[in-house]
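Narrative of activities, Objective 1.

The group set out to show that a structural description can be obtained from nothing but a protein's sequence at a throughput compatible with the screening campaign. Below is one input-output pair from the validation batch, recorded exactly as produced.
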Amino acid sequence: MKTTEKQKISKLLDKENYQEAVSYIEDLLVKSPSDEELLFNHSFIKNYYLDEISQSIIDELTKVVDMDGEYKGKALTLLCIVYSESAEFFSAYTAGTDPAVDHQFLQFVYYEAMGKACFEIGYNHLEEGLSYIDKIIEFENKFDESIDSYWYTLQAEAYIRYQQFDNARMKLEKAYEIDGE
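Output recorded for this entry:
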């Protein structure tokens, strides 16, 4: 992708013209259908800014991963997130545990996707899932003024699913402390 093209996309995003940015990238992809950066940015904007979840995004991200280039790690991270949003938890887990995944890219959303994937794919992954949600809680504790009770509720739901009711109760009590209701 050329510098002028990057600048135009950046300006469109700064102005929150997300659909226009997608359309512009689609025009560029007609000329350069194998441009790794264009493919990744197209999928990223559609998912992250426009909340789209589709097979075309999965296909584009898979293509970027298969290119084995500069955007592979970010594509794996976003693929994990998209699969989790699609309730394809085993695929989310597979993408999210690939050694090339970029943990720093969309870190917060990645941890949530991995936590949910672990909770859904089976009891053997319960502790792993809890550790991902603990990372979100640590992050919020470090950088935010408050922790969202949702994270404790999510952990409690996982404990309930696996009939660990004492642990679920402790997590719900923490959620209650935060909400104060």
